[in-house]
């Protein structure tokens, strides 16, 4: 029996999170569920009675990382057979059958709609793992207040699931159908967060701007959140271009708290590929949307997601993606090699672009984006931005960091500022990812 794990009478749980913001937010819900059931949190796996991995299934690579970690933990379990080992989240949902077979050391496997039942699943003793991967159209965890980490920014899940079924994407299968959380529940949670010092709220959802609860659409929700006292900045991620309605654009343009930054995943610059992906828009429609957004919100910064090497992507399709990037000039881009995912509609089509060619295309996309980010950031040298102070900068003694309204990382001398303060800074120099600033 491990000495440290047995100290005190409350069992201790260690939770490790992989993947997107939604998973980080889900882990805060899991923590709240387990606290209610009498668990304490452990800082490291070695100190815990229960070890849980909240996992991601979006690309194969995400799964490989988790499997690597699982084999480390299996060795730990050989030394300490009393620990309980569990896999949560999208990979649990996606790979449940294979996991039951291939990972005999797992005690429980819980999908994203099963977190309420975790305490009983952990408590269940037996040789077979407890498996609960039922997707539940009604589960929103609206009554469970996620455990906030104490920072000035909080992520609040506004809707769960996705109904878009893009041909490459596993999310609708592992997170289930779209469902929105009642505005009253969201507003209560956000007001509580504001009282505890949160100044910036990021509304989350796989297609967050598809939010709808009765008469309340996402634009209306933004306006409601803007009325919450103490909240100074509102952001959201990730919207889908097809749900970027006038209502949402108007709210962004007219509510001062809604920040001028938008992550607008495009995926490809080729109409042929966009159609094959089932994205629901053409390049021309996307560019018109960008124009409308920029006309309504002149200081808007844009980021995007791009996939290279989707089934059937030819060199000329890919060059159209580069051309689109040059036209839009994104502030930032998250770029991925296409990864074939089981269950998705594109699965049976397979891979047509070699791994080497995907790597070449990815490198080129990244180089173009780095150059654009650097140009745009350098162009902001001399400008003054209001920065919401987050805390000490990762590098640089006595330096603080925070985000500009456009969600760029600014580094500046502390000079007595504290987390949660908003201060004015002037950009003095810039890299592709950071603005080095002086106090104004
Ligand atoms: N392969 C590569 N990238 C993917 N994404 C989603 N599914 C896949 C996949 N099968 C990317 C998309 C999405 C982001 C969250 O992950 O760009 O917007
Ligand atoms: Fe996946 Fe498309 Fe839904 Fe985004 S909108 S989560 S890419 S299916």
State the gist of this model.
With 440 residues, the chain is of the alpha/beta class. The chain has helices at 3-6, 21-36, 60-79, 90-94, 96-102, 118-123, 171-175, 183-195, 218-226, 246-254, 271-277, 283-296, 315-328, 355-379, and strands at 12-17, 40-41, 50-55, 84-89, 108-110, 130-132, 153-157, 159-160, 179-180, 200-204, 212-213, 216-217, 233-237, 261-263, 301-308, 332-337, 384-392, 399-403, 409-413, 422-430, 434-439.
Description:
It is a single chain. By secondary structure, this protein is α/β, with parallel strands linked by helices. It folds into 4 domains: 130 residues, Rossmann fold, CATH 3.40.50.12160; 112 residues, 2-Layer Sandwich (Transcription Regulator spoIIAA); 92 residues, Transcription Regulator spoIIAA, CATH 3.30.750; 56 residues, OB fold (Dihydrolipoamide Acetyltransferase, E2P) (Beta Barrel). 35% of the residues lie in helices and 23% in strands. The strands form 6 sheets. A 6-stranded parallel sheet has the order 2-1-3-4-5-6, with helices on both faces. A 5-stranded mixed beta barrel has the order 17-18-19-21-20. The protein has a 3-stranded parallel sheet with strand order 7-10-13. The protein is globular, with a radius of gyration of 23 Å. The N terminus is likely disordered. The structure holds 5'-deoxyadenosine (5AD) and iron/sulfur cluster.
């Amino acid at each position: 029996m491990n000495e440290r794990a047995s100290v005190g009478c409350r069992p201790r749980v260690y939770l490790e999170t992989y993947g997107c913001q939604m998973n980080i937010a889900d882990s805060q819900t899991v923590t709240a569920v387990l606290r209610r059931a009498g668990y304490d949190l452990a800082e490291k796996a070695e100190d815990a009675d229960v070890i849980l991995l909240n996992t991601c299934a979006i690309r194969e690579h995400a799964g490989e990382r988790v499997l690597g970690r699982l084999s480390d933990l299996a060795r730990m379990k050989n030394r300490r057979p009393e620990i309980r080992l569990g896999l949560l989240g999208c990979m649990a949902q996606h790979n449940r059958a294979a996991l039951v077979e291939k990972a005999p050391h797992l005690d429980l496997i819980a999908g994203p709609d099963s977190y309420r039942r975790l305490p009983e699943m952990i408590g269940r003793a037996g040789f077979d793992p407890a498996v609960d991967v039922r997707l539940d159209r009604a589960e929103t965890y609206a009554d469970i207040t996620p455990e906030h980490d104490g920072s000035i920014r909080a992520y609040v899940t506004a809707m769960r699931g996705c109904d878009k079924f893009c041909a490459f994407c596993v999310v609708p299968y592992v997170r289930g159908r779209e469902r929105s959380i009642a505005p009253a529940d969201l507003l209560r949670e956000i007001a509580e967060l504001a009282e505890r010092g949160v100044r910036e709220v990021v509304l989350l959802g796989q297609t967050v701007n598809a939010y709808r609860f009765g008469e309340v659409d996402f634009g209306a929700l933004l306006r409601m959140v803007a009325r919450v006292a103490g909240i100074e900045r509102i952001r959201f991620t990730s919207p889908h271009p097809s749900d970027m309605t006038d209502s949402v654009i108007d709210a962004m343009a007219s509510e001062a708290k809604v920040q001028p930054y938008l992550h607008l995943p495009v995926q490809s610059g080729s109409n042929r590929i966009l159609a094959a992906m089932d994205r629901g828009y053409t390049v021309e429609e996307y560019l018109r949307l960008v124009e409308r957004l920029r006309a309504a919100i002149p200081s808007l910064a844009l980021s995007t997601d791009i996939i290279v090497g989707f089934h059937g992507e030819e060199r000329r399709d890919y060059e159209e993606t580069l051309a689109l990037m040059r036209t839009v000039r994104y502030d930032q881009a998250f770029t991925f090699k296409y990864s074939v995912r089981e269950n998705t509609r594109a699965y049976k089509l397979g891979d047509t672009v070699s791994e080497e060619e995907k790597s070449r295309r990815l490198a080129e996309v990244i180089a173009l984006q780095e150059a654009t980010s650097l140009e745009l950031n350098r162009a902001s040298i001399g400008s003054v931005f209001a920065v919401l102070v987050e805390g000490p900068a990762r590098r640089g003694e006595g330096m603080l960091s925070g985000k500009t309204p456009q969600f760029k990382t600014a580094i500046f001398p502390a000079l007595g500022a504290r987390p949660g303060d908003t201060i004015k800074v002037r950009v003095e120099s810039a890299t592709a990812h950071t603005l080095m600033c002086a106090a104004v």
